[in-house]
Structure prediction request, 320 residues.
Amino acid sequence: MRATAIAQPNIALIKYWGKRDVVRNLPAVGSISITLSELQTQMSVDLDTDLPGDVLLVNGGEEPRFLPRISACLNDLLGEQRSFARISSHSNFPMAAGLASSASAFSALTMAAAGAADLSLSTRELARIAGRASGSAARSLYGGFVELKNDGDSIELESLMDAESWPLQVVLAITDTGRKETGSTEAMEISRKTSPFYDDWIVRQATDLDAARTAIEQRDFAGLAAIAEHNCLKMHSIMWASRPPIVYWKAATMRCLQTVRRLQGEGRSVFFTIDAGPQVKAVCLPEDTEVVREALSTTPGVKQVMTSGLGAGARLVKKT
Ligand code: PMV
Prediction:
């Protein structure tokens, strides 16, 4: 009746932005991500309780704010007749700041809750349930390079390559640890309804996915860098052109981009990507990690730098 799972966030190289179906939380486009190794969320779910309602502890303190989405995800997995749960989550990185904390949280939650309830669901089924809570969470059930396909009436996931086959490194530059003003669901809907570039984004995504898949298959770093930066800047252009505009960047975000451009000019194998927040994720080859880390940590406005390799998908670590 009690289980603990660990999951890591994933970083999209080809982004998911926009929903085809808000109620079922189906993405409007496919996406490709890498699952990290060093940033982790550990989630315990205890279903053996006499509680009058679900209780959520985040890093030891009660967090009723996140509870509605967590409870809805548990209902989706276990049915509404389930007993109430004590859920305890620990993460070693800041939440709700564009570091994909919801991806590691909901992928770990579905795995832990299925373990606590003794359900034998496949990774694919768990991914679909996690994806209904947070679109990007479906990808964290898998390790390494992951594609979320958006064909048909539901999502399909495919592991493109494992983490060991191309051990890229990611340097995460934290420029702001505050919570973001506009959550991704609301921001995606604003983009869909108002951005003049939105329809074009949907049409062009297949080409970007093809280019990234080919670059990954061939371990072509320059090819992956070019398509990932293009896709990231295209997603942010849609946001900037929305009404009201959605601008997640801080001044330090731009400075990090300039740092990455300088390093590229010096021959380093590195590229940037940015999600729904102000943090910059620099993806690089292992031999350039230290130089990238040093350059980003001394970029004005950067508060903290974290480094991670690529890792495995969500897994159950304890069941009692
Ligand atoms: O899963 P959500 O609702 O947090 O949306 C994530 C969207 C991006 O991080 C901006 C892109 C992506 O594919 O992860």
